[in-house]
Amino acid sequence: GKFWAQVIRDVMRTSQNQGTETSLTVQGNDGAVSIDNVDGNGRFINGLETTAQLIRPNLEVATLRLNQSAPGRYETQFPMTDTGSYLLKIRQTAPPTEEGGERQTLTDFTRGVTISYKPEYRHLSTDEGFLSELATVTGGAPNPTMDRIFNVSEDERVAIRKQLWPWLLMAALILFVLDVALRRLDLAGKGLFGSPQRYG
After folding, report:
1. pLDDT of 16
2. Domain residues of the chain, as ranges?
3. Could you say which of 6, 110, 169, 199 is the most buried, measured as most Cβ atoms within 10 Å of its Cβ?
């Protein structure tokens, strides 16, 4: 609980130096972090001691050192072989202003990057050879046209299922109405002409 609370506070913390710009990217199986530092007048800040605590997805912690590669720029790379979130707690200190003094903390912040899939699963192409072989074995055609898809040969039967209950229900209703009508006509005929009389 305390660990993640501290991480959230570090992520929400603003940099002490507004002239700091950080880039954290994924390059293949490695992560690359670079920091550019300028002062209030736009001049590069050189000679900073830049370190980072790397927290891996399995919560292992490693210390990284960012070396200066250009005026005001500090860079390093680290392996990212596991999926999950990688957090970098970065700290930069400047040389002391007085002889024998302590180094001054210039920036102290946290950045993170997440790998959802391993690199070998990021760029997958279609196995056209396998699909072509599979289509041939099953009697189909690789990459067929629209006409070929809906073209059915004479010896090939296509089963189409239809629901018959609506037709059966309609037939039952018609027969029921006819039965009622015939019964009424029969009763009406008897009432009109009366019962047949016997002679003899």
Report:
1. 47
2. 2-116
3. 110
